[in-house]
User: Which sequence fits this backbone?
């Protein structure tokens, strides 16, 4: 009975947080989370004909904002609990399957 | 004569003020290892290595760099160590009562909390994530994640991770007492011994590897090597390999690991205000991990008729078996008839799995 309550609790928490995470991801600009690109800007000395065009200024990598961190926190906890719930479920099935197999043999 | 003295004593002139500080740090690690018996297998080599790499023009740096490139940079040493750790772990208590795994999951809250805090402290995402994984309380996971994310704070992260793992008996009890009442600490949890079949014991490592690998592919190496070691133990037909993994392999890798990590403890890399901040954040990670597990147990008590002693939630960190022993002793202190050991061990070993899952998720998010 307690197991059912626990699973119900975890499932409901996941169902509640997933839409919130989806909404949060939509509202955070994608470029806010990303790595900086390398920048090369070759300046040719006077007298030379060829000049490579300068690339766009590189985006400096910035620390995560609080909202981004909370999104990662939500994703991480949901992920861990999801995997844990799956493992517990599989163990329950295994336990029943291996116990049933041993009982007929006895 | 002057030339001779110059040749002999010239190296003294290369001493910088940071080097004696690192010698002192090395000496403290060695003292903690020997006198206080705090994770001696790692703190002693790290302490000695810190001295080796902080001598002027040290010839050891090149050798340790070779070892570092051979074993840490490619994550080989921590993964091989995980085979030994997997072979040492008996997952029986958690197979006996699988719902204990939930506490292992809850106790990883500190990792993500510390990620947020490290970001507020202006660490870049990869560094913040690497620092947060100190909360996994698992050395190999911390090394693999910090290395894979290219964090420049590997030395500080390692010192923090292993130091706090050794400080669990000091860090956890005050947090547990603060969050629980006397009545809660007296809750008894009778242990029901169930037969765990050999088939379950053999299938468990295989199934966990596949499940975790499907959700967090970045964790496959970590969870795979851990579970491979456990499979060697449980299969029953490879006893010599299991023993080798538990003793020879684990000791050999531990020997190299501690010494090699010291390569990143050169003064110019290690001595910075960031190192102190990382030590502080590591402590926060451990504290919040402990709090997360305890509070989750209290939350479950609201819904369940069979009460859980919330102290066992604190064992969800990966510091095995230290944390389980600490909480069991706290339980005995409150009530000499309250034997929580099998529950605390079950939660503790599930914390090992949960910490690897958390590390893999961090890698998936930030790689």
Assistant:
């Amino acid at each position: 009975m307690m197991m059912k309550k626990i699973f119900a609790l975890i499932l409901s928490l996941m169902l509640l947080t997933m839409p919130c995470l989806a909404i949060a991801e939509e509202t955070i600009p994608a470029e806010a989370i990303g790595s900086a690109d390398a920048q090369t800007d070759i300046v040719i000395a006077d007298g030379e004909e060829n000049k490579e065009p300068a690339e766009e200024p590189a985006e400096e990598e910035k620390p995560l904002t609080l909202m981004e961190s909370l999104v990662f926190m939500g994703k991480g906890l949901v992920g861990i609990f999801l995997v844990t719930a799956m493992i517990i479920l599989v163990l329950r099935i295994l336990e029943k399957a291996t116990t049933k197999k041993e009982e007929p043999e006895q | 004569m002057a030339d001779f003295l110059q040749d002999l004593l010239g190296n003294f002139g290369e001493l910088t003020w940071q080097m004696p500080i690192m010698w002192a740090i090395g000496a403290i690690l060695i003292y903690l290892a020997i006198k206080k018996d705090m994770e001696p297998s790692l703190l002693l080599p790290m302490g000695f290595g810190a001295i080796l790499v902080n001598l002027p023009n040290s010839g050891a740096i090149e050798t340790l760099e070779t070892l570092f490139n051979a074993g840490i940079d490619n994550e080989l040493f921590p993964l091989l160590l995980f085979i030994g750790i997997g072979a040492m772990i008996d997952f029986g208590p958690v197979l006996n009562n699988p719902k204990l795994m939930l506490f292992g999951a809850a106790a990883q809250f500190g990792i993500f909390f510390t990620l947020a805090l490290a970001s507020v402290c202006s660490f870049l995402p990869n560094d913040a994530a690497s620092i947060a994984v100190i909360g996994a309380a698992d050395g190999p996971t911390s090394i693999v994640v910090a290395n894979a994310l290219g964090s420049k704070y590997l030395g500080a992260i390692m010192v923090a991770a292993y130091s706090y793992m050794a400080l669990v008996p000091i860090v956890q009890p005050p947090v547990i007492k603060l969050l629980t009442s006397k009545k809660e600490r007296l809750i008894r949890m009778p242990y029901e011994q169930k037969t765990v079949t050999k088939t379950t014991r053999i299938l468990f490592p295989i199934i966990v590897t596949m499940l975790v690998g499907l959700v967090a592919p970045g964790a496959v190496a970590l969870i795979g090597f851990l579970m491979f070691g456990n499979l060697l133990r449980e299969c029953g037909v490879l006893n010599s390999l299991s023993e080798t993994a538990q003793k020879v392999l684990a000791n050999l890798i531990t020997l190299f690991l501690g010494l090699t990590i010291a390569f990143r403890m050169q003064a110019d890399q290690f001595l910075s205000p960031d190192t102190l901040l990382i030590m502080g954040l590591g402590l926060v990670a451990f504290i919040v991990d402990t709090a997360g597990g305890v509070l989750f147990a209290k939350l479950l008590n609201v819904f369940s008729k069979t009460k859980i002693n919330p102290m066992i939630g604190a064992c969800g960190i990966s510091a095995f078996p230290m944390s389980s022993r600490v909480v069991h002793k706290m339980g005995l202190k409150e009530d000499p008839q309250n034997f929580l050991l099998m529950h605390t061990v079950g939660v503790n070993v599930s914390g090992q799995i949960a910490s690897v899952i958390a590390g893999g998720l961090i890698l998936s998010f930030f790689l």
DSSP finds two helices and no strands in chain A.
